[in-house]
Structures are given as C-alpha cells and as structure tokens.
Amino acid sequence: MRLIVKIIIESFHASLRELWNNKLRTFLSLLGISIGIFCVIAVMAAVDSMERNTKQSIQKLGSDVIFIGKWPWTFSNDYPWWKYMNRPVAKYDEYRILKSKIKSANEVAMSVRLEGKTTSFEGQSLEEVGVLGVTMEYGTIMDMDFSEGRYFTQLESDGGAPVAILGYDVAKQLFPRSVNPVGSYVTLFGTKLLVVGILKKEGESLLDMSNDNLIYTTFNFIKTKVRFDGDGAEPSILVQAKEGVALDVLGDEIRGHMRSLRRQDPVEEDNFALNRISMITSFISQIFGALNIAGIIIGGFALLVGGFGIANIMFVSVRERTNLIGIKKALGAKNYFILLEFLTESIILSVIGGLFGLLLVYLSALMASGAFGFELILSSSNMLRGVIISSVIGMIAGLWPAFSAARLKPVDAIRFK
C-alpha cells in the first residue's frame, strides 16, 4: 500500500513538471475541459437557483396550510378543467362555520386576489397592481413583515373598513419621498382607502408571488366592490393545522364539514378542492429535474470534446516520452508505474481545467446576480460535482494513452525515433 501511495505521489510531481514544461499544450487542453465543465455546472447552478427561488416563494404560503377553493392545484396533460367550471366558489358563510367547527385548525382565514387593478394618490396613478382582500386571521397564518405601520384590527376586518396595507414597490412608486404613506389615502375601486401599513421589500420571485406589488385590504371591503366568481375573483379559505396535527388528518376533517355544508350525497364527488403546497413543490421538482438532465446532456457534448482533446494531448505526450519510458522500464519500472504516471497526468490536467471552469461559473454567477437582480448561487454540491466529473473525464480520456505507454517494450521504446 505504501508503495502505491509513493508511486502516486511521484507520478503527481512528474505530471506537474510535464504540464509546466508544455504550457501551450496544457493551456489548449485546459480550455476544452474548462468550457465543458462551465456548460454543465452553469446549467446545474442556474436550475438549482431557479428551483430554490421558486420553492422559497411557494413556501411563504405556508407548508401547514390547506387551501379550500374551486380549482385543484394539479397538473397533467388531461387536466379536466371543464369538470370544475360549474363548481361553487368558497363562501364567506362557509369560512365562518368552518372557523367555529374545525377542531384540528389553529386558524381559519379567507382571501381573494385580483390582478391588474389601478390605484392612485393625488393624481399619481399606478397600474397593474395586485389586490388581496383578506380576513383578520390571514396575518396570523402568513408571515408579514412591516417596515411601517400595522395590520388590520378585528373591527376593521369584520366591518369591511376601507383600509390598506401597501407592498414596498407600490408605496415607493405611488408616494413621493416627502410624504409618509401611513396615514395617507389611496384611491382603489373609486374609494379612498386609509393606508395603515407598509410591508418590507421582499424582492422578485420567478412565480411573481412577492408582496412588493400588492395592496392588502379587508375581505369584506372587496365583497362590496367585486362580484365573486365573476370579475376574475375566486375566493379561497385557508385552514392552518394545529401544531402536531398532520395535514391528512386536517384534510379529512375539512372534507367532512365541507360536504355537510354543501349537502352532498355520499356517492357524489367533492365539488371543492383541498390544495396544499406540497402539490406544487413536487411538480416543480419534476420540472427542474428534467431541466437538469437536459442541461447535463447538452453540456455533455462540450465535455466530450474536452475529453477528446485531453486524450489527443496524452497520446502526443506518450509519443514524445517514448524513449524515457523505455529507459524507466529498462531500469526496472513496472507497467503499473508507467500507467499511473500518465493516468495521474491526465486526471490532474482535467481537474485543473475543471477548476478553471468552476471559476468561470462563479464569476458569471456574480455578474448575473448584479445585472439581473436574481440570486444565482454556485453551491458546494455543484462544485463537488464539477471536480468529480472532471476527474472521471480525465481518467477515461487518459486510460488508453496510459495503457499504450505501459505496454511498450523497453528495447523498442529506447530505439524509437
């Protein structure tokens, strides 16, 4: 075992000397494998970053929450949308009854989201704003970080008071710096709403689930302005599980109460959907898994070219050092010593190229994060993958040249010209 370790160390030093003595050849070999590793790891880093961003956006909805609505959050080629068209939307009376009856729930809330609305402040208008009407309990279920102001009171929620909480971007674009939004009035649906709070900046997300471009108001205020199941408004009831209660248990209890409220026969199919975050995250994992595979296949062609480049350089190296190989074998060097020497050189060459490729990915991630405001991260797992992939490519590319060098006969090798 000690002999093998000694041979590997000696091969390592010899390989570094050969690579240093042939700088141009080394550079050209490094270039091919660096581009290959850059392509593969850059795709992996981009896909992983997008998946992380997407899942973080979704997790804000609550992993312990069941959403009762008209449409199920399922995705398939044969999605039977026509089947759900005539389902009733969630009703405010159902929310109130569920709040009093569900024993496994920590909290029950109701919300409705509207898109593409226009709001204004003293002549300054802002279009394409999202509006979210919520009940008082929504603030308990969802984490809402305020930079100024407060959440709705129970009295404001129950009475449908015209009050508003503004997202960071809405407040920034609508109000001049000299005006404090809290205590001011914005116009929405032709009504003046008192601004009671400003949310902290969250930043962009791939699914556009940030609060930055939202206005929160009370659910009962929205009820007076919008026709539900029309105007693109379909309310949802949110049920948060008590600590220690499984979502399956909570779902069974909700299903029983909902079927009773809607007076459904035992043989009837549910005319409502019980959705949870895990339904989306599992689907997202499948999508990004497929993207990862596609990226690896595309980057694999670049790695193949880099591998052929290393193999070609190693054949040239064997040819140039044939006489030296013959002398080493004549002095007693075993075949495996020659094999390890060239194989180590090939692996080192490939790993150095892989490290340069990782450096390029890191620099590209920094530039992309600064230019587009999207956090692109080169994770330690992707770095390890890059090193392992480059090592394997180096081993495969150098295997045949190393075998050919090890099989040379001492006399023929010494006489080679």
Describe this structure in words.
It is a single chain. The chain is an alpha+beta fold. It is built from 14 helices and ten strands. It has helices at residues 2-21, 23-59, 81-84, 92-101, 138-141, 154-159, 168-174, 219-223, 247-261, 277-320, 322-330, 335-372, 380-406, 410-415; strands at residues 65-69, 105-121, 124-134, 146-149, 163-166, 185-188, 191-199, 214-218, 236-241, 273-276. A hairpin with a 2-residue loop joins β2 and β3 (124-134). α2 packs across α12 (335-372), α10 packs across α12 and α12 runs antiparallel to α13 (380-406). The model has no long low-confidence stretch (mean pLDDT 82).
Strand order of the largest sheet: 2-3-8-5-7-6
Structural class label: alpha+beta
Number of helices: 14
Helix-strand pattern, N to C?
HHEHHEEHEHEHEEEHEHEHHHHH
Note the gap between the termini: 36 Å
Q: Rg to the nearest angstrom? A: 32 Å
Which structural traits does this protein have?
17% strand; 417 residues; alpha+beta; 56% helix; 2 domains; 10 strands; six-stranded mixed β-barrel
Brief summary:
This protein is an alpha+beta fold. The protein has 2 domains: 2-57 and 283-415, no CATH class; 88-271, no CATH class.
Give the topology, please.
Layout: H1 2-21, H2 23-59, E1 65-69, H3 81-84, H4 92-101, E2 105-121, E3 124-134, H5 138-141, E4 146-149, H6 154-159, E5 163-166, H7 168-174, E6 185-188, E7 191-199, E8 214-218, H8 219-223, E9 236-241, H9 247-261, E10 273-276, H10 277-320, H11 322-330, H12 335-372, H13 380-406, H14 410-415
Parallel strand pairs: 3-8, 5-7
Antiparallel strand pairs: 1-9, 1-10, 2-3, 2-6, 2-9, 4-7, 5-8, 6-7
Helix pairs in contact: 1-12, 2-10, 2-12, 2-13, 10-12, 10-13, 12-13
